[in-house]
Write a structure and sequence with these properties.
The chain is α+β, with helices and mostly antiparallel strands and about 625 residues long. Helices cover about 65% and strands about 10% of the residues. Among the domains are: about 140 residues, no CATH class; about 150 residues, Beta-Lactamase (2-Layer Sandwich), CATH 3.30.450.20. The strands form 3 sheets. Strands 1, 2, 3, 4, 5 and 6 form a 6-stranded antiparallel beta sheet that branches. A 3-stranded antiparallel beta sheet has the order 7-8-9, with no helix packed on it.
Length: about 625
Amino acid sequence: MSSIAPSSQSTTRSLIPPWLKGKWGFLGVIFIVYVLLNLAWTYFHWGGLQRVDLIANLLSFPPAVLASVLAWRVAAEKSLSASLRRAWFILGLSFFMFFIGNLIWAYLDLVRHVEPFPSIADVFYLAFYPLGLWGLLSLPSAPHNRRERLTLWLDLFSVLTAATLFVGYFIIVPTAATSSNDILTQLIAPAYPIGSLLVIGGILAILYRRPSPNTQAALTYLLVGMLFFVGGDFAFGYTSLIGTYTSGNWTDASWNVAALFFGLAALRKIYRGPASDLAQSLTSLRSRFTAWLPPIAVALGYALVFYAVIMNNGLSAGWLIYGALLLTLLVIARQIASPDFANLSVRAKVILTFIMVSVLSVSLVSVTAYLTVRASLESVVGERLKADVELRSQTLGNEVSKQLEFMKALVLSETIENGVGTTNASYTGDRAAIESQLQQQDLAWKVAEDTDPVVQDVLNNTMAQELSEFRGNFPNHSNLLLANKYGATVAATARPDSFSQAGEDWWQAAYNEGQGALYIGQPTFDPDTQSLSIIIAVPVHADHSQDVIGVLRTTFRVQNILEVLTLSDFGTKDGFDLLLSDGTLLDHQGNAQSLDPDTVARLQATQANNYAELNFEGTLH
């Protein structure tokens, strides 16, 4: 194979650089045009929205293939060193793994019509990261002495620590917290941002190591490509986390742009001509930029800590502070290990060391004080919150208990006792015969008109009149219904859907196989009346005996529920929310929303604690 030879024509700048000429250079031009068309399609979405998934998947194939082919073209160049060829072969393999992942993803999404995450495609996607890191670290570099190597690694770890703080805070931790209960999803979802951090480490290693002269020319394109890839990963992780990711958007395009720059880096590597003035300027700019990265990393790390504290994100502030302290230690160690520090006078060394140790000591004291005060405040606030919540729960409980007493008083009525006893006596035969009779009555009830005598008797007999009188005295009660010991409807204030109540949970619980028990159902919220509705059922006993002869049911509305949830003297920020058994969250303004099962499970798991801190819709609660 022959390399692209430098042009012997005039040195006048042309629109197309010499390394984009020849047969391999022409392939690079086609690659550029293809990606530009890809970007145009991403903006206009030609073909209609219904074909976005199909076109986006198809557009992802050529860039990864071309990037792999061009990288392996470099690996096949016999004039290059074995270590450099090996590095480019590994880098090409990383993009080929990404291509296989795209193929499997498209097959599952477009052909099988199944959710492609998690799937076997993730194995190949995740393989990109260790291979990419291996390839980047395998690129040869100029030799360093011992002190230079130590300074290099301290700079690298400083910047990588700052990157870890940001990626962990905004992507890894939220991704792990919102992953489903499926163990495979919990393992794979955070693996992508962690893999991106590995690639960032490889990029930083290239920035801080002095690449060999024959690598400098292609390095800029390679770094830009890797940055586009990592940026696409982070954008995908964040948009997926907040639920805004869609196929065929700019995130997908960024991976194709990354493959383009990777291919351009390979083409530039094949070309053996001298570096242009622009390339030399970029190399100089890169060197100055890397010198400023460690102090910028420290500043950004502490800025993130202050942001977490201001946002009252106590769960994250603790580990972020430790990360910022590690950053400080790395920068201090780096300054001590640098050649400039070694050349200072003894007096200057003592002064600088004292300043750095003072900064570290103040930071440690500040961290200790912050964590101690926060723990104390959390304990006090948690206890007071729990006491306030228990008081409000007791208020709701007392209200329901009072209604129970009213219900128990109602079932002592002779009219109700005698009427229920009479209907029980009307059913004869064994249990099977009675159930057959109930089924026939239930079927007739469902097809009967409202004017049917049977329906009118249930709604207007003496027992129904007594229930209506009770409802008039206590208007928060509705849909009162009296059933006998077989579940047959005896009286009601409103026509029920079924005549037989034997299959209802409230009847079975209150009848309790003839033993009798009090039943209080789970509350449901009615947004129209701004009240909670609770089904209450009590057993009806025979006069002066424990025999259960029927069940009385009512639907009770807790009208003052919003008052119970309003702000207390303690001054909570947003009032209290009430979590209902069906996963509905009711706030003090009467707004109801359904929580996802994972959030409900985490809340239920911490119900025995004084308090719990959860990230809910991006806000700490």
